[in-house]
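Trying the structure run again after the queue cleared.
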Amino acid sequence: MSGGPYGPSQGFAVPPPVPPMPTSPPPAPPDGWRAAAVALLNLSGLGLGYALLRRWVLMAVCWAATVVLLLVALPADADGVPSAALAGYAVVLLLAALHGGIAGLRTRLSWPPRAPLALLLGIVLLAVPAGGALWYRDAHDEAVEQALLARLDKADLLVATSGRRPFTSAEPGYRSALEVYRDLAEHHAGSRAARRLSDSLRIYYTTVGAAYGHQDYCDAVEPLKYLRTVPGTLPKGRLGSLAGWPDDRLANSLFECGSQRLTAGGTDWDARFGDLLDTFPRSEAAAKVSPAVDAAVRRAKKAVDGSEPCAAVQQLRDLDTRIGALAKSSGDADGTLAEAAGQAGRSGDAGEYACGVDQYKDGDFDAAQKTMEQFVADNKNARNAARAKKIAIAAEVAQTLPKAGKKLPTTGSGGGISVTVKNASPHDITVLYTGPVTGSFTLKACGGCKAYTLAETLTTGFKPCSDSSRHYPQRTISLPAGTTYFVHKPNGTSTATPASDTAALRPGYIYTECAYTTQTFGSGY
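Done. Tokens:
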């Protein structure tokens, strides 16, 4: 062994190299309690499981997901949280719980030192999302209630504004409001809005039927008919006593409207009474129909003797037709309507005489003739039939000689002045006359006679009925002194014009009148 200056050399042992420090703590033994604690803590939505594992980024992801959900959900409204947001958040929580459980299986917690304590903490912190869910459910329920109350208020306002318009234009608004009421009653029966429905529906009925309260009975009919359809649109029993609210009001409106129009001479009163008798046959209002039509017949019958008899007759005819139809459609069990119709018809027939007289006095001779002829045809045995026939003749004469209609003819006949009328025409003729007396008769055609030319009638000395070799059909009548108006009209032809004469008859004379035919039908002495 060699040595150095200090003595023999000695050897030194070299220590082995030191191993590198691990980058992370070694995995902990598997611990299911720890894994469960981390998973539960992550289910709180706050990422606390990741916090105990010191996984700060993942904890931040959990916080971000929760913040996004809160931004979407708050403030709570009636629509709630979108289902997509809830589903996405649930997926995030489940993934966080699953991943956290796997990570916590072999990773020691930074705090608390024991897993069971962390598990207990996770269970306690589950109250956070549970409590938040309960709070949100209450907030959402309140938002729904407020939304339903707002819908109800809007529907009530729509009813109020619609009530200021006529029913025809307001009906769409009423129907829209009713749809809201129906939805509340069917789908939100337990809501505060549904508990307010009784008041809203009461106001709805009184608003729709307001015309009845104002005694505008004709205007009330259609709204009340509409209200009778409302029970069919709402849940059974929802309306209570309101379901029958329109019935008596509609019955009274139908009667009052029909009665008003009957009195005023309207044309649809029978339709109102018909609706009443069909819909409410046993109502007090229905019992008033027969007395009402009886009174109308009596008024019209009395009016025949008034200043407008023809209008009264026309009304009686109309009453006869309408009451008769009403009797058939309603059944008329006691026959009172049929009796009223018969009375109207008989009174109308009798009133034709007064109508004809009025037409004659007004100078409407054509109408007077037709009216009196119809009266005679319908009432041959009537007390005024004879005079009506005279008036019809006088009216026909007055259509050619208006002065003949200045006085109403009487039933008088005969007189002391002889007037002979001859027929020199080839037509049968009817001779009409009126004046102090009125009458008519027919003369047969003159055999072999022919129409005179216009030139012949203009020749000096022209005198018809002067051929002594002919036998002219003739008739002699006796008339009183005074002016008598004659009209000769050919029978069997509609093209010839009636001829006329005005004769001032004086005692001590014998008068002859001749009827002849020219291009126009003429007469002379």
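The mean pLDDT is 84. Worth checking whether this holds up in the mutant runs.
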